[in-house]
Write a structure and sequence with these properties.
With 263 residues, the chain is mainly alpha-helical. It has helices at residues 2-9, 11-14, 17-37, 57-82, 94-114, 128-159, 161-182, 187-210, 215-230, 241-261. The protein has one domain.
């Protein structure tokens, strides 16, 4: 299988997830500083800071590490893994990849409605959904090309998928702290959304493994989650990470039971 040979090709680099993470953080620091230096920022509906461009730092770091290992061949192997939709083991995993997180956000919206949260009428802007998905898929591919081969794979070889998801998820959340603050979110929101981020990484690892360690499927899951966040219920205006985090935690508890049982 394609995932097997690519793992062998990256074996030395895969043993250094800390090196990869430090490289990504160092590259992202420039984006964080740039956002702080810009005065009047564009008013875009999804309220993304300039530092959100750091989404491509994992791909750049992965290309650099792959090039150090095998020059052009290493980069070709990396990009091949990113476009590995033909290697997806079971097509049924497209369903959770695309619809699990939208379902979680929809259930959280229902709960907030029943709890009489002051919510606006949903305004989904249907023609914008494919546009948002395309944009977020490109950004997600830029992230997952690095996180999955260079962090998740070596970690789960050592400690299993749950530990890999927890550790990578924690690093992933920490990486987002400054952009979340720059987007105007407070400490409580960041704390709860950090939980959502860690849980989402566990979901991504679950789908990634069951789809044959497909980076493409990881990117689809990531993109589907981002679209769901920004359509809730009007470009993310009333998204509550506490409610979403509790519902997602229940879903993840069901996912990790087979892992803990050793199946």
């Amino acid at each position: 299988m394609e995932g097997v040979w690519s793992m062998r090709a990256f074996e030395p680099a895969l043993k250094t997830p800390a090196h990869f993470c430090l490289t990504v953080f160092a590259m992202s620091a420039g984006m964080w500083l740039l956002d702080g230096l810009i005065g009047d920022k564009p008013d875009i509906p999804v309220n993304l800071p300039v530092s959100s461009l750091m989404a491509f730092c994992p791909l750049i770091a992965a290309c650099w590490l792959a090039y150090r290992r095998e020059r052009g061949k290493g980069i070709r192997n990396l990009l091949h893994r990113l476009a590995d939709w033909r290697a997806v083991r079971r097509r049924v995993w497209y369903w959770p990849a695309l619809f699990l997180m939208p379902a979680v956000l929809f259930i959280s919206w229902l709960c907030m409605t029943l709890l009489s949260y002051p919510l606006p009428e949903p305004d989904l802007h249907w023609p914008m959904i494919p546009v948002l998905f395309a944009v977020f898929l490109v950004a997600a591919a830029g992230e997952e090309a690095g996180w999955m081969p260079f962090v998740v794979d070596p970690l789960q070889e050592r400690a299993g998928p749950l530990a890999a998801g927890l550790i990578c998820g924690a690093v992933w959340a920490l990486w987002h702290f400054i952009p979340w603050a720059q987007a105007g979110h407070g400490a409580v929101w960041i704390a709860w959304h950090s939980l959502v981020t860690v849980l989402l990484r566990i979901v991504i690892v679950w789908i990634y493994n069951n789809a044959g360690r497909s980076v493409w499927m990881a990117a689809l899951t990531h993109a589907g989650a981002n679209v769901a966040f920004f359509l809730f219920p009007d470009y993310g205006s009333h998204y509550d990470p506490m409610v979403a985090g509790i519902i997602l935690a229940i879903a993840v508890a069901l996912i990790v039971r087979p892992w803990r049982a050793g199946r």
